[in-house]
Amino acid sequence: MSWETVIGLEIHVQLSTDSKLFSGGSTSFGAEPNTHVDLIDLGLPGVLPVANRGAFYKAIRFGLATNAEINLTSTFDRKNYFYPDLPKGYQITQMALPVIGKGSIKIEVDGEEKVINITRAHLEEDAGKSIHDLFEGETGVDLNRAGTPLLEIVSEPEISNAKEAVAYFKAIRQIVTFLDICDGNMAQGSMRCDVNVSLKKTGDDKLGTRAEIKNINSFKFIEKAINYEIGRQARILESGESVVQETRLYDSVKNETRSMRSKEEANDYRYFPCPDLLPVVISDDELNEIKNNLPELPNEKEKRYIEESNLDISEAKIIASSKTMANMFEEACAKTDDSKLIANWLVGDISALLNKDNIDLEESKLTSNNFAVLIERISDKTISGKIAKSVLEEIWESGGSVDEIIESKGLVQIQDESLIEEIALKIINGNPSQVEAYKDGKDKLFGFFVGQVMKETQGKANPQSVNEILKKLLS
Amino acid sequence: MSIQYKTINELSQMLKSRDISNKELIQETFNLIDANLHLNAFITLNKDASLLKAEELDKNLSLQPLSGIPIAQKDLFCTKDLRTTCGSNMLSNFIPPYSATVIENLENAGCVSVGKTNMDEFAMGSSNETSFYGNVQNPWGDKLVPGGSSGGSAAAVAAGIVPAASGTDTGGSIRQPASLCGISGLKPTYGRISRWGMIAFASSLDQAGPMARTAEDCALLLNQMCSHDLKDTTSLDETIPDFTENLDKPIKGLKIGLVKEFDLSQLDKEVVKVFEESKKQYETLGAEFIEISLPNISLSVPTYYVVAPAECSSNLSRFDGVKFGKRCDDPKDLEELYIKTRSEGFGDEVKRRILIGSYVLSAGFYDAYYKKAQQVRRLIKNDFDDAFKKVDVIMSPTTRGAAFEEGSKGDDPIQMYLEDLFTIPANLAGLPALSIPNGMVDGKPIGLQLIGNFLEENKLLRAAHNFQLSTDWHKKTPKRDIQS
């Protein structure tokens, strides 16, 4: 029997606001446990939430970028359950009336475009973290993350395989990073997703029973978890049994999913409207302000790069696909007016290094500023392209600044023989009478040529190379 | 000079004329507290800080409107560095790191918070019998309940210990004890007073308010308690008038509504007699009575007992033994930590309401109970809107009778819930309402309720003040009128 896979994703995007969704607590990552927690985050008796409008503005950016319905009036509900890292015993979320309604996004898999519809995107507060492995026999609770604003983006069940799911996740990540509403940092948990997978007989209208795989935070694991789950469900269905509706966890070490809780054990969240918060109403003026200041999206950048910077379509596509690379391109262009040179480096050497290490640009040690300086040094001929490659490799391995590397490694000296040869030829061609005299036996004139080359290179040329090259050229 | 039974205005005069120093006033207040320990009106006293503040006030003349006035704060308001129990074992060790907005407002106006008053646990009760810290005795008689949930506040004012106390009113918790203790109490329009720092029972119904010897004192207190607070999004961004303005102005022509659906024939004859006399009194003052209909009013109690428990079941989830408050000893796992902590920390009434609330919110029942209740609530609100097109205020008894004896309502919670029959509608509709003493039944005081339209506290207070200018019920005190 042949089976069709049906996948839906719920992606949790941590919004990059300075303060939390309902308090003034800081949202920055990596602080000492429980230091970014105020009275509200702690859920002390008597405290009340106040909605952070900045989070709404960011959510609306997402809505605009995905052609979604924007609900100018939206409400909050409480989702009740007990857990130590949930300080109030309920999570404030948008159940009944989310800020963002139906929208859609384009994905591309193996050169084929597909539209995935988005059911809704709603705001909610994140929980804290339970730490089980730090204290013998006890669980620690870190509430720094509690109250951080999340945008939960729910897709329609229109994704057909693991590749599409990854492409969809990447497309969402691309949009939220370009919109500057999330840093996209998956290692720090800025984006996580729950995956719903079910199988149905090919051609059937009715969806099969689904399993939900919770809290996956890498592209690789999304793909692996889905493929494992498809295999597991297919085996069950082939054997004539039925899939149980349940929540499962993906174990990346064993590469398998396992049951966390069944439908019967699921919490009854007892949703009801949060009586502490009035509906949040965004005015038309606020909406227009957001529209007018919407950051440029990848397709818009691509177009601009082709039209204004004379890039090829393929170059423009690669550079515009990543927020970090686009930033690098634009910063370097601002310093050095040679977009083709810049594009060559990004699409060529840098992309090759990324592929080799299988990382994203923001994970590398290369900063935008360093890249811009590197290009500048090539353009002002401080270093040749060949030397620039070695500087890039040095930065790739151990970071550091371009100028310091040039300085400390003595790269300022022109060791590039082809460049020296180029200069030597220019000198020789510019002084035919001296060349004739030298060739007639006036050996002393050799010093004249050396002097001219050194003068031309502001003394940076390697004298030994200059001697050898001149000797070769004049012989 | 005795300070017992003095009003805010009287004490302010004594302080201004230097008949008494701030420190003497506070010292004397603590003497009265000590002499009335049998009332069990206070859970925690704030003696050292109070005396210190009084000394400061003696040193630096203050022009604050309530400068030096001793006030008892309901133990439901968070007070920085001063234990706040909410009447529960769950918070027996809870010392808040911040103060409620209303506490700050009163203290910034010069009030001295002398202590935290006893109350029904988490404000759930109508007799102060659900407090973990024991029953409060009504100063009007042994074994009489003071009403609830602001029972300690009402008893402290009724016994003349303090001229003023803060209370909160979710379904009648200011007005019912005010009625049973013979004092004046006002529940303002929902949103008039910030809920920041009030430990939530039912967020959409909870409202703080003043309790005092007179309507005029309630107005003085209300002037200071109200503020538009950005920390509470349900706090109203409305002009706050001077609530003492025009209190003396005659009320000739005031239209008073009488609710057709309130069947007074079921009440004690004496209670009805007191109510009829008050009507006559208002007629003498020039008011006219108009019968109004609130067709859905009979649904108030069931509606309330769906909405309030639902919100409470969620609001009280934070008391889980993890972060603050009580934690049980040696739980074997997380599940047991929750179960034991909450079993030991909460009393029966609180548990009952959490269970009711969890039930009405659960999947499959939400539409039939919680959603339906909110729809009925809207109907009740609409009924009031229609009524206030015809009348200025609506009048009824505050309670079905005078103070009852401890334990007399037995084990039937429904009997206790019906205590709040007259008071609950104003909470559901978010309207201001007050209770003033209007007579005696069997030697015990009883109160009259006036409900006003949205934001019309002024009208209520003026009607009440006019009544008090022409009657003496608010001047009766337990000592003078029982023991003499």
Structural summary, described in words:
The complex is a heterodimer of chains A (475) and B (484). Chain A is α+β, with helices and mostly antiparallel strands and 475 residues long. The model of chain A has no long low-confidence stretch (mean pLDDT 92). In chain A, the strands form four sheets. In chain A, strands 5-6-9-1-10-11-12-13 form an eight-stranded mixed β-sheet. A three-stranded antiparallel β-sheet of chain A has the order 4-3-14, with no helix packed on it. Chain A has 15 helices and 15 strands. In chain B, 37% of the residues lie in helices and 13% in strands. The model of chain B has no long low-confidence stretch (mean pLDDT 95). At the A-B interface, loops of A face helix 9 of B.
Write a concise synopsis of the structure shown.
The complex is a heterodimer of chains A (475) and B (484). By secondary structure, chain A is an alpha+beta fold.
Defining traits:
heterodimer; A: 475 residues; eight-stranded mixed beta sheet; three-stranded antiparallel beta sheet; 20% strand; elongated; B: 484 residues; alpha/beta; 37% helix; globular
Give the strand tally of chain A.
15
The total of helices of chain A stands at 15
Number of domains of chain A: 3
Proportion of helical residues of chain B? 25-40%
Distance between the termini of chain A: 81 Å
Radius of gyration of chain A: 30 Å
Q: What is the structural class of chain B?
A: alpha/beta
Q: State the shape of chain B.
A: globular
**Percentage of residues in helical conformation of chain A:** 40-55%
Secondary-structure element order of chain B, as H and E? HHEHEHEHEHEEHEHEHHHHEHHEEHH
Computed Rg of chain B? 21 Å
> Which percent range describes the beta-strand content of chain B?
5-15%
Overall body shape of chain A: elongated
Poorly predicted sequence stretches spanning 5 or more consecutive residues of chain B: none
Strand line-up in the sheet with most strands of chain A: 5-6-9-1-10-11-12-13
Order the strands across the largest sheet of chain B as they lie in space: 1-3-2-4-6-5-10-11-9-7-8
Number of domains of chain B: 1
The second-level CATH architecture of chain B is Alpha-Beta Complex
Query: Any low-confidence stretches of chain A, pLDDT <50, length ≥5?
Result: none
What can be said about the biggest beta sheet of chain B? 11 strands, mixed
